[in-house]
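Dear Dr. H.,

I hope your travels went smoothly. While you were away I took the liberty of generating a structure for the chain from your last submission, since the lab meeting agenda had it listed for discussion. I wanted you to have the full record in hand beforehand rather than looking at slides cold. The sequence, exactly as received, is reproduced here:
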Amino acid sequence: MFPDTVTQMLPFLALATLGAATLLVAFGALRSARRAEGSGESRYELLCDQAERLELLREERKTLTEELELERRERLQAQRRVDQLTREHPHLELERELQRLTEELELEREGRLHNHRERQRLAEELEEERLARSGDQREVERLRLEVRQLVEELEVVWERRGSSKGPKSLWGRLSGAKNR
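The corresponding predicted structure, in token form, is as follows:
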């Protein structure tokens, strides 16, 4: 009597074991997908912050460009004034003053060039972050597809092993197995 009972319960035990293993695999894949999604979201937030910084840098660049244009005009006016003073008063040492102003303007131009290069470097970093984020999104989608495929494969296995009676879905079969 006892061996008959055990023999009758073996399919249900195998079914329960297979169901538990399937659930563990699915939960593991789900946890991994959620971790990847969380990582992608944090990267997205970082990119948003960097995009805001980039916008601020663009505005600063625009302001600096306007200032540079203004200084260029002032320099031209100063040059005209120097030329006029040189013609009117050749004995003044305007040449030295012109040289000093030219050097100051050159130093300011180098500073602006440095700022421009720094902005370009930041823009390149932002682009790299954007590309990395898109890679994370592809990984999350790949994991989601994998989980769907595993569930579909399990349903096919259940359909092959199960009878035509009772619920057709994997979850229906599992809940039906509990009720028997």
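Two observations you may find useful: The CA atoms of residues 22 and 154 lie 8 Å apart. The mean pLDDT is 82.

With kind regards,
E. W.
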